[in-house]
Amino acid sequence: KNQVEQSPQSLIILEGKNCTLQCNYTVSPFSNLRWYKQDTGRGPVSLTIMTFSENTKSNGRYTATLDADTKQSSLHITASQLSDSASYICVVSERDSSYKLIFGSGTRLLVRP
Amino acid sequence: GAGVSQSPRYKVAKRGQDVALRCDPISGHVSLFWYQQALGQGPEFLTYFQNEAQLDKSGLPSDRFFAERPEGSVSTLKIQRTQQEDSAVYLCASSLVVRSKGGYTFGSGTRLTVV
């Protein structure tokens, strides 16, 4: 059932450092892939969305990549800030039911001063 | 409103009790979704409305779960005879158009604890 797998499960980095989060998926046929940020006690907020033909998308200090052939995506965070501490969730949609988001379990990121 | 509003924020129910969770989507949003998020996990799809029509309820875990959106705006997720395994955060999301490739807006969720 685990159609979207994320790694690492958790990560601690120092403020100002960069980090990269990984996502592998088996969802097929593929429609799009999103990265969401979820603060504790809040709903997920969209960071990026990529379709099959896109292989990179940036949103400020966040850069997502997509390799649809290997079904892998990454989210790179540059110059981390304390406010980046949150869960980052990879979300994939199937082509035939693209309204239905399939979430990974997330990577819990903690940025320390 | 400016965002998706869910109420209550927290609900403690005794096992066997019925509960009703409310979602106020962004005004004018056609699509509305309910997701269930267990502790430490990503959300899982429960059901989808397009206006007042419930087009997909394949994610509802049992017939104890029922959702409605009678006038195509506010939605209610009802859980009958709650069980401990129903404890989770229930998230509501809305989208302006059908099959949106962009903006799904999530509410902050209702945390249900069944004791």
Description of the molecule:
The complex is a heterodimer of chains A (113) and B (115). Chain A is an all-beta fold and 113 residues long. Chain A is built from no helices and 11 strands. Chain A has strands at 4-7, 10-14, 19-25, 30-38, 45-51, 56-59, 62-67, 72-77, 86-94, 101-103, 107-112. In chain A, the strands form 2 sheets. In chain A, strands 2, 4, 5, 9, 10 and 11 form a 6-stranded mixed beta sheet that branches. A 5-stranded antiparallel beta sheet of chain A has the order 1-3-8-7-6, with no helix packed on it. In chain A, a hairpin with a 6-residue loop joins β4 and β5. The radius of gyration of chain A is 13 Å and the shape is globular. The termini of chain A are far apart. With 115 residues, chain B is mainly beta. Helix content of chain B is 0%, strand content 49%. Chain B has no helices and 11 strands. In chain B, the strands form 2 sheets. In chain B, strands 2, 4, 5, 6, 9, 10 and 11 form a 7-stranded mixed beta sheet that branches. A 4-stranded antiparallel beta sheet of chain B has the order 1-3-8-7, with no helix packed on it. Classes of the chains: A mainly beta (113), B mainly beta (115). The A-B interface holds A 4, 32, 41-46, 49, 51, 89, 91, 97-106 and B 4, 31, 33, 35, 40-45, 48, 56, 59, 91, 93, 95, 98-109.
